Amino acid sequence: MPRRDDIHKILLIGSGPIIIGQACEFDYSGTQACKALREEGYEVVLVNSNPATIMTDPATADRTYIEPLTWEIVAKVIEKERPDALLPTLGGQTGLNLAMDLDRHGVLQKFGCEMIGATAEVIAKAEERDQFKAAMEKIGLGVCRGETVHSLEEARRAAEQIGLPCVVRPSFTLGGTGSSIAYNLQDFNEKVARGLSESPVHEVLIEESVLGWKEYEMEVMRDKDDNVVIICSIENFDPMGVHTGDSITVAPAQTLTDKEYQYMRDASLAVIREIGVETGGSNIQFAIHPDDGRMVVIEMNPRVSRSSALASKATGFPIAKIAAKLAVGYRLHELPNDITRETRACFEPTIDYVVTKIPRFAFEKFPEANAELTTQMKSVGETMAIGRTFKESFQKALRGLEVGSFGFGCDGKDLWGTPEQPSLDEVRTKVARPGDQRIWYLRYALKYGMSIEEIYERTGIDPWFLDNLAEIVELEEELRAKKGIADTDDRLLRKAKQFGFSDRQLATIWSEAEMDIREERKRRGIVATFKAVDTCAAEFEAYTPYYYSTYEDPVETEASKVPPGQEDLTVLLGEDELRAVYLEDEVPPKKPDQKRVMILGGGPNRIGQGIEFDYCCCHASFALRELGIQSIMVNSNPETVSTDYDTSDLLFFEPLTTEDVLNICDRVQPDGVIVQFGGQTPLNLARALSNAGVPIIGTSVDTIEDAEDREKFKNLLERLGLRQPANGIARTMAQARAEVAKVGFPALVRPSFVLGGRAMEICYDSAQFERFVTEAFIVAQGQPVLIDRFLEDATEVDVDAIADGEKVIVAGIMEHIEEAGVHSGDSACAIPPYSLPGPVRDEIREATAAMARELKVVGLMNVQFAVKEENGRPNVYVIEVNPRASRTVPFVSKATGMPVAKLAAKVMTGKKLSELGYYREPIPAHVSVKEAVFPFAKFAGIDIVLGPEMKSTGEVMGISERFSIAFAKSQLSAGTLLPREGKIFLSVADAAKDHLVGLARRLEKMGYELLATRGTAARLEEAGIQVKRLKKLQEGHPNVLDYMFNGELKLVMNTPSGKGARTDEGQIRAAAIANGVACLTTIQAADAAVIAMEAMREEEMEVEAIQDRFPHYGAPQKP
Amino acid sequence: MSRTAKLALEDGTVFTGEAFGADGEVDGEVCFNTSMTGYQEILTDPSYRGQIVAMTYPEIGNYGVNDEDVENEKPHLAGFIVKERSRRSSNFRSNGRLDDFLSRYGIVGIEGIDTRALVRRLRIQGAMNGVLSTTDLDNASLIAKAKASPGLVGRDLVREVVPEIATAWEKPLNRLSKLHGAPGVAAGSDAPHVVALDYGMKWNIARHLFDMGCRVTILPGTATADDVLALKPDGVFLSNGPGDPEPIVYAQETIRTLLGKKPIFGICLGHQLLCLAAGAKTFKLKFGHRGANQPVQNLASTRVEITSQNHGFAVDGDTLPDDLEVTHINLNDNTIEGVRHKRLPAFSVQYHPEASAGPHDSNYLFGQFKAMFA
Description:
The structure holds two protein chains of two kinds. Chain A is of the alpha/beta class. Chain A is built from 38 helices and 39 strands. In chain A, helix 13 packs across helix 14 (438-447) and helix 33 (993-1005) packs parallel to helix 37 (1083-1098).
C-alpha cells in the first residue's frame, strides 16, 4: 500500500516553547516529519510558537505559522490553509492536547480535516487513566491498582483502599507535572489539592506505589497492516519513583533474560493493538518487581516522545520520520532503512554498544526548590553517551554532562580525600535519597567499602549497575596504586580507557598534566577507535556516518589482507594505515581534495544554553553543505536536530571535552573548527583546542578572550570612545571590596566566563554585596568576579551582527521590555525597537560596527547595550560584547528574514558578505516580540521575580503589524493569559506608584475591576480611580489569595519593592503561578500588557505564514 | 588471575583476549549472533554444533543462568566469544553465573576482544573457520590450525547431537512465553500424537507441541519412516539441527517416504531437509542469519513477522520443484523462509517460530500444523 493520494496538505503542530518535560526532542521529531512528508510530495503546514526551532525555519515546511498554540488560533490556521489531515503525534503532549481540543470544539469536523496516525478516540484511550486501565485489564496485563478521583473527599476514600505511600498523578499533564508520591496523610492532602488544580480536567489518579521496582520502557512502531516492531528497550538505572526523564537510563535493557524481554515485547504489542494506535510510534512504560518478576504496565504515550528521540539516537532508527511515513499509508516493509540502504525499516534494531543517558538539572538556579527527585520531572536537559560497555558509556555520559566532572570521580569536583569528604553517615543518608548529586554519593559509598547488597537495599538500583560502578572504583584504586603513567603498563592504561576513564581523571589521579597523559598514551598506541551506529550490529554495511569512540584491544592481521572491494583505499592510505584503521575504525579517511569543517555543539540543554544554539549549529552544517564542504557535527545531546543522522556529513556522538574533540580531530583532520555556535560549551574548549593546533575558524580565540577580559575590553571601549558603566574586576574578596567602593551601589556582581547569568546579582548595600560576591567566587571556579555599576531604570538593547573582518551588518536591534537588570534571556524584546529614537538606534549601530571591526570579528557578534536617560538625554552604554552566536540568533532570523547563522558560517569559511549578496541591515515591515517561558510551576512555592540570573527554559514569538498585538500574541504563547474582563490585583513598589496611576486609569476604562492593598489603593483613590481594598496577607481576610483560590482573580501586577522583604509578595507571586493566574512582575511588562489588552479589544489576532511575510527568504539582497 | 585466550581466523587475523569458562582449544566455523538477549538459549541450541559463536551485544552474562532457559541438556557449541562477560549476575530467576556454567560443560570462552571488528571481517569476507585456544598462544600455529579446520560443508554434524533413544516429552512452555493462559498440561491418550524427529532439536519446539495439547514423542533424527509410522502419529515434526543438510541423506530418505502419509512440519534444518527430500538444492550463505530481529514476510497475508533465526545454509529458490510453493521470504536478502507442498500436507519454515531466544510473532505456525491433523 503506497502513500495515500486522497490527502495533499498535512498540518503539523509543534510543541511550543522549551519547558521542563518538553524540550528540543520535538523540534527533532517535527523537523524529521516535515522532511519526510515533503519528500513524499505533501504540502506541510506547521504551527509552532517557538522561534528557536529548526522546524519553524521557512525552508522546513511549506507554510509555517509562528503563532500561539491555542485551539482558537490553530483553528484560524486551519480555516486559512484547509489541510486535509492533521498529524497530532509529533508535537509532544502540547500537540496531542491541542489536536484533542480542535476535535472537541468541532474544528476538524467543520473543515474536513482528518486526524492521521492516531484518532481522538485512541488518544483518549491511552491518555485517560480509567480507559487505559480498563483496556489493560481487558488484555490481561497487570496495572497498578488505583482510582481516578475528582475531589479531595473521593481521594481520601481511594487512599483507604490503596494504602500509603501512594502515587498522586494528575491527568493530562506533561512531563508528569504535579505527579508525586504521598507518604503520609498530610502530604497526601496537599498533593491531591495541587494535582486537582494542575490537571486541565481536574482529575487525579490515586495509585498503588511501585516505588523501587525496576523500570523499563519499550519504543514500539506499528503500521496500517498491524506490523509491529520494537525499536528499542530502555532500562532505568534509577528504579521506579523517579520520573524517567530524571532517571539515568540505559539502552538496551541489561538485566532481562530473553524470556522476560519477550514477555514485555508481547505485552507491548498487545498494548499498542488494544489502544489502537493505527500507525506510528508509541512509548510504553513497565515496572517489574525485582524479587518475583511481577510486571505492571505504567503508562503509554501514543506519540513520539523524549524517549523515542533517545531511542532514535541510541539505535540509528529514525522513529519520527518513519512515523510520518506510516501515517500517510506506507507499511514498514515498504520503507528503506536509510542507514543500511539494502534492508527495510521493518525490523528490530540490534545494537552492539551500550547507551547511557544522564539528565541535567538546574537546581542551582532555584535554591528554594526541593531538589529531591520524584515522579514529577525536574531536569532541564540530558546528555547521551555511547560506549562498548556500560562502564565506558556511563563515564562518558558523566563528562558529557558538563558539570565539571570528567567521569565517575577523580576530577576537580571529587570530594574524596579533600577536607569536604562526606562522612559515612552522610553518605548513607544521601544515597537513599534520589537527587541530582546521588550518583557521586554512590561512589563515596563504594569508596567507604559499603557492599553492593547494602547500597541496593538503600537505593533499589539494580546490583548489576552497582557492580559495574564498583568495577570502575576498583580500577581507580588499581590506578592510584601506580606512581604515574610511566609506572603504568599498556594493559592497565588501555583497560582504564576501556572503562571510560578520561585523560583528565588519570591526570588528576597521578597529579600529572592532561596533555602529557594524552601524548604518552598516543605514543603507546592507545588511541580511540571510532565505531559506527548502524541499527544492525555490523550485519549489514552502514552508509550513514554516525560514530562514537571507544578503546579496543588491537587486532593482529597477517600482511596483504585487504577486504575485498576496498582495494582502492590501499592506494589512498597505504596498506599499513589501512590495516590499522579500516576494520577497527570505521571513519572514512579524508580524501586529498576534500575540505572538512567541524562544528562543536552545545551539549545538554541547560538554562541559558539550549535549542537556540542547536539551531545555529544545524544552520552552520547546512551552510557548509551548500559550499561543498564536508560538515562534521560533534554533540552529546540526544534531543537535538544536530544529532540527527542526516543533518551533517559526519556525526560524532561524543562528550564535548578537549580530549574527546581532539580524538575526533586526530581522526578526521578538519580544515576548520567552528566554536562560535554551540554556546559557552565550545568556547570553553577553544583555548585548549587552539593550543593543540586545531584550526579554529572565524573570530580568533584571542579575540573571544579579549572580549571577556575586562581590562582589554575597557581599553578597547576607551579607544573607540564608547561609554561603559563604572566597573572593576576582583580576584579576591579584598579586591572586590575596594572595587565596589569605586563603582558604587547599586552594583552588579557576576563571575566571568559563565553563561546564563549564573550567580549574577544586583547588590544595593554591602551586606548583600558580601554574600553575593562569595557565591560568585564559588561559581567562577578560579576565574575573576566582575563588578559593574548597575544602571537603574535603563532600557536594555540586544544587538546581533555579522562581520566578515571588513564589513559589519547589524542583523537585528532588539529593545527589551523589562529594564536592564533582568537577564536578557528572561526579558521580552521586540524587533524593531518600539520606543528607541532614531538617533539612539544609529548610535547603537555605529558602536556595534566599530567594536566588530576593532575586534576583527569574523562571524557573529552579540552586544548588550543599556540606554539611560541622564540629564534629559539618552546615553548609550555598552554592557557586554560576545563575539559568538547568541541565544537570539534564531529569533532575529525569523523576525528579519535574514538567515543569520548560515551567513555567519559561510563568512567563517572565508566568504565575504558582499560575495554572499548581503549588504545592509534588514528592516522588517512587521513587529516581532520574543517572550521568555519559565519553569516556575515545576518548583512549587518559589518566588518568580526576575533578576540578573537567567531562569527561563524557553521562548515564544508573537508577530504582527502592530507592537501591541505582537506582544499580546507573545503573552498568549507563553501561557500568560491576559484577561478580557474580571479582577486585577495591583501592587507596586513606591517608586512605580505614579506610573501605575496611568495604567490603572486605562484598565478601569476598559472595565476591569481593580483590587489593591492599603498603600497602592490609597494612591489610586487619590487619583480618582475606583479600587477595592484588600487586606494584606498577615491582616487576615479577604486578601488576594482568597480571590486567587476562588478563581476570581484574572491578573496580578506585582513588582518587587527594590530590595529585600520579598516574603509577602513572593508568596502572592508563587500562588499566582500555582493557580495559573497571569503575573507580571515588572512595570514595563505591565505597560506592554495594558497596551496589548487595549489592542485586543480593537482587533482580532490574525495569523500569517512566515513564507508570506518573507516571500524571498534566503535570497540575496539587492546591492 | 586472568588467563589469556586467543582466537585465530583462517584469514590470518588473531584476537587476543581473556579466557573464561573452560580451558582448552577448539576449532570450528566462527559465526555471530545479533540477539541482545538469550545467550543461555543460544549456548544450549544444538544447531551451533561445530561453531564458535560470537555475541554482537557486548555485555553478556548480566542476568546469569537459570535452570529454565535451556534448549538442550548441555551446550553444544564449540566456543563462545563476548566483548565483556559480566562478573555479577542480577535477575530474580538466576541461580548461577555464566562462566561457571561454561566451565561445568567444558566450553571455552574468550572475552575482551573487538567483537565488532570480528563481525565486520565475517560480513565482508564471509564465514571463516577459526580456532579458539587457551593452551596454544602462538599466532602462527593458531592460524595454521584455523586453516586446517574442516568447516561445516559436507559434514554430518547431526549424528553428534541426536538423542540416543526415543522419549515422551511432557514439559510445558515457560509461563513467561505466554502473555496469558495457563501452562499446558499432559494431554490424554486420545489427544493428537506428534512424532518429532530430533536432529538436534531445541526443547522449546517440544514445549510448544506439548502446550498445544499434543502427545509428543521424540525420535532420534536417524529414525526410519517405519520407526515413525509404527508410532501412528497424527503429525510428524522435523526439527532444527546443526550444519550442512546435504549430507544428511538418511533423514531426506525418511522424509521422502513420510511425505503424503502424514502431515509434516519442519523448522530450520527440518525445512532444508524437507526441501531436499522434495528435490530442491541448498547452498551455503555468505555468513548466515543468526539473531532475533530478522524480518520475514508471510506472502499470503503480506504481514511481517520478526523472527528468530540460526542458519548458515538456505534453500536455493532456483531449484525449487513445482510441488513446493514459497510461503515466506526474508525481507533483508529475499531468501526463502518458508515453503508449502502444493499437493501434500507438508510445510516448513527456515526460521524459528518456537523463538527462544527471540520474538513470538510466528507462534501461529504450530496451530497451523495442528490444524492439518485429520
